[in-house]
Amino acid sequence: MTEATRDSPDGAALAQAIKTWGQELGFQQLGIAATDLSVAAAHLAEWLRAGYHGEMHYMARHGTRRSRPAELVPGTRSVIMARMDYLPQTRTAMAAALRDPTGALISRYALGRDYHRLLRRRLQRLAERITAAIGPFGHRAFVDSAPVLEKPLAQHAGLGWIGKHTNLIDRRAGSWFFLGALYTDLALPPDTQARDHCGRCQACLRACPTGAIVAPYRLDARRCISYLTIEHPGPIPEPLRPLLGNHIYGCDDCQLVCPWNRFARLTAEPAFLPRHGLAAATLVELFAWDEATFLARTQGSALRRIGHERWLRNLAVALGNAPPGPAVTAALAARADHASPLVREHVGWARRHRPDDPQRF
């Protein structure tokens, strides 16, 4: 291919070649998106006005650069969107874990290695393949690393539609996948936008433990377990604590009940498989980790981003919701005088919340 390919009718051939190269590099699907995100920008503005972003102040920063790719990366004309599947367990195994109140529920995307670096490297390798074919071109790869509207872009690229739970869904692959974006100055023909296939289904709304999906396609992050256990820096609101159950990092409940996920396939990527026994770890076991152990066991993992203090905060809430037992009582008592006021407050709540703790009064 030549330099002229970018702006010639052969752009379709280049787009097809890019998709083939992407699959050879380990992506499950690629699509091309145009850069008009005006509809998504309006939805984002409405969501922000409602205050649904909570303390994720970065969602309100950057002005129009989030919805105008050419303002974020000057010269951007097309965005290559890539999908990589991460499902590490069968539906049966995940359902069994959800039924065990003594187990620590960690969102399945975080059980393996952190996906950000892996996807960025793959996108860069894709850019190198394109360069080898047509010569140098303007590009920049993003994986949750800049103000990028990944899901609307992925919908425009034909990778799926944004479901009622606000996750992206593909009819043939469900929703257990990561997204990466490669902004380019190439004039590639965009793919057909994916159509909505949620229909009248309300399964995700009914399944949300905290009622965070306040209406179809409308998520109040302030009530979302993923926000509360990962993004939220301070005390978890007391009325919501009993609703968290044994979730300690993120939540997959809305995905577990989505009918389209019956088509999801287990990941073939070794990096996304569970490490350190986290898929079957108990609350008591993880609450005993000191900071050194936490840092060692979460090296290269998305879990590390919350730090040891929030890790203990989340586990204290889960232990407060756990079934009665001497092991839980002893674990909470051992952290009652923790140096962190945040941890102490949540441990105190957990002990008051439990009927079997002698210190509850």
TrEMBL record:
Annotated 4Fe-4S ferredoxin-type domain residues: 188-218
Sample GO molecular function, one term: metal ion binding
GO BP terms in the entry: tRNA queuosine(34) biosynthetic process
Residue sites binding [4Fe-4S] cluster 1 per the record: C198, C201, C204, C258
InterPro entries tied to this protein: 4Fe4S_Fe-S-bd, 4Fe4S_Fe_S_CS, QueG, QueG_DUF1730
EC supergroup of this enzyme: oxidoreductase
Pathways per UniProt: tRNA modification; tRNA-queuosine biosynthesis
Family: Belongs to the QueG family.
Protein purpose: Catalyzes the conversion of epoxyqueuosine (oQ) to queuosine (Q), which is a hypermodified base found in the wobble positions of tRNA(Asp), tRNA(Asn), tRNA(His) and tRNA(Tyr).
Record protein name field: Epoxyqueuosine reductase
This protein's encoding gene: queG
